[in-house]
Amino acid sequence: MRRPSKTDLISLAVTSLALSGLDVALYAAGQRTSGWAGPHAWLALQLVLDLSLLVVWRFPRTVFGLGVGGAVAMLVADLFAPGLLSPLDPLTLATVPTVTPVLVVAMVRVLDRRTALILTGVLAVIATRAWTPSWDITPFGLVNTVLPALLILYVDARKQLLQSLRDRAERAEREQALLAERARAQERRRLAAEMHDVVTHQLSLMVLHAGALGVSSAEEPVRAAAEEIRAAGTRALDELRDLVGVLHTGQSEMDRKGERRVDAAADIAALEALAAESASVGVEVRLDLDGDPAQLSPTISRTAHRIVQEALTNVRKHAPGAVVDTGIRYSADGVRISVRNGPASARPDPVLAESGSGAGLAGLRQRADLLGGSLRAGPLPGGGFEVGAILPAYVPTAEGARNDPGSRRR
């Protein structure tokens, strides 16, 4: 039996009170009973059955038993002691208790279908006086018993149909979402293949040529420049290879293997190097680091580095001379980044300011979304600008969620 809702309880209380009022009105306007049970026997029986509706959800079988018992008692009294439980000249044609239609509806909703139909049939036979059918009593008995049962069966069937249609619609939406996700996965794999075939090949050639130049050149500045180019190309290859892994499988190659961890000292040193680069061109960067970078996966660490790098590059382009506050908070759940600069103290170089394509932050925002994080960027009151990001500690994937059921709750 399902638990009643607040609406069910209120409806039953209102119905019980309404039926009690109706029976009191009929009693006041009609004749009294004349048997040994006294003149109030009919009213007492009706009120007991009306008020029993208040506990029908708690004691359903008891209440239904009282209803059927009341109908049987009225039948027996009508056959063997007329006037005992109902007036000899009643105001209505009902031969069963006034509460009968409500009891039929409750039985169909609460009891199993077979029991409810059997009890409804018993009440229908009593109400219609099927052994002595008449044009007065029989139709009224059917309206009191069979009609409520048919109506509630129709309503329940309609609800089930609507629920079935709703379930089918939701299932179709889920299937569409799965198809869309499959299409996105195929597109990611295609992009990964193209990046691997084109960009990785060219970067590899650049690294090889830079290495060869550093070995063959006799000039120290040339060797140093070649080494910087080779190191930058190697880092770009690492980032590109890892990004291709994310596009291809939805998970970083390094994260998947779990063999490498972030070198905290190297990570902090790289951030300090970014700050020093900006300071060398007149942009003061105040670093505020909190936590241990080693808690992050390599992919997340490199993405955080790229966000700070891009934000500082934009400050150098558009707000020369500004002071930049860079705050990075590492935790077991991930990393929070905030790069906030004040207004520029000098006019931006027009050539430098227009040199960007405007896709840097957009690309980082897409990368943050791909890794399960978020990135925001926008102006500040007073002429400054802020770039903020929240990244998880690792790249969440369906495979990881299956292996670690608690991963989504971290």
Features:
single chain; alpha+beta; Heat Shock Protein 90; 3 domains; five-stranded mixed sheet; 5 strands; 9% strand; disordered C terminus
Notes on the structure:
This protein is of the alpha+beta class and 410 residues long. The chain folds into three domains: 6-144, no CATH class; 184-249; 261-409, 2-Layer Sandwich (Heat Shock Protein 90). The chain is 62% helix and 9% strand. It has a five-stranded mixed beta sheet. It is rod-shaped, with a radius of gyration of 41 Å.
In spatial order, strands of the major sheet run 1-2-3-5-4
What fraction strand?
5-15%
Overall, the morphology is rod-shaped
Indicate the structural class: alpha+beta
| End-to-end C-alpha gap | 38 Å
How many distinct folded domains? 3
Instruction: Please describe the biggest sheet, giving its number of strands, its sense, and whether it closes into a barrel.
Output: 5 strands, mixed
Q: Give the CATH superfamily of the largest domain.
A: Histidine kinase-like ATPase, C-terminal domain
The number of distinct helices, counting runs of at least 4 residues, comes to 14
CATH top-level class of the largest domain = Alpha Beta
The residue ranges in which pLDDT falls below 50 over 5 or more consecutive positions are 252-259, 397-410
Topology, pairings included?
Blueprint: H1 6-29, H2 41-51, H3 60-80, H4 100-110, H5 113-128, H6 137-144, H7 146-216, H8 220-249, H9 253-257, H10 264-280, E1 284-290, H11 298-318, E2 323-331, E3 334-341, H12 350-353, H13 360-370, E4 374-379, E5 385-392, H14 398-403
